[in-house]
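Long-time lurker. I teach an intro course on protein structure, and each term I like to show students one example going from raw sequence to a predicted 3D structure in token notation. This year I'd like something fresh instead of my usual example. Would anyone be willing to generate the tokens for the chain below so I can use it in lecture? Attribution to the forum is fine with me.
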Amino acid sequence: MGNSALKAHLETAQKTGVFQLTGKGLTEFPEDLQKLTSNLRTIDLSNNKIEILPPLIGKFSFLKSLALNNNRLTALPEELCKLKKLESLHLNSNHLRQLPAAFGQLSALKTLSLSGNQLRTVPTQLCGLRHLDVVDLSKNQIQNVPDTVGELQAIELNLNQNQISQISVQISHCPRLKVLRLEENCLELSMLPQSILSDSQISLLAVEGNLFEIKKLRELEGYDKYMERFTATKKKFA
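-- Reply from a regular --
Happy to contribute to a lecture. Here you go:
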């Protein structure tokens, strides 16, 4: 892509606060964006070949939305965690194995998509985020869900298509968790904490494609209580 094309995009972005440059084969984060650190609210560089997100990302202090889906990122810089206004972060289909230690400082974050990466566990840093609504960790290599998950504030947690065989009973203590997606994992019925059914806020539990038949779930103690929540939620949205 020529300089003149980039320049045109930068000029538009200066007026709109949105910089979108997707599917252009970019191999690096455009350094010229530095000129717009105080303008930009949205950056979308999805479907490129970017391998490194540079530390300068920390300078975009008004950024609300950042999308880098379908790139080649293997790590994220600590500087990303300075973005106090960031509300949505989409990093699907990269090669990320972990999140920066200070990730819990992204205090405004509401939506986090990390589908199709190489995470092996539910990152503990997410538990510090008070405004999280939706967390998508589907299509990773997560094998177990640790005790810290009980502090997660999310409303929806998507763990579909992982390798999960163990879930901490603490997941039923999540204060706001309404939707839990666990489809296509390696769960035995005995490994599903019954308290998810009997004693949680969860009103939609998706567990198709595990190592048990769905009808067996209906025989578990607490299933009636779960169905009450499920039905009440359905009525609310009907």
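Some talking points for your students: Residues 29 and 219 are 53 Å apart (CA to CA). The longest strand covers residues 18-20.
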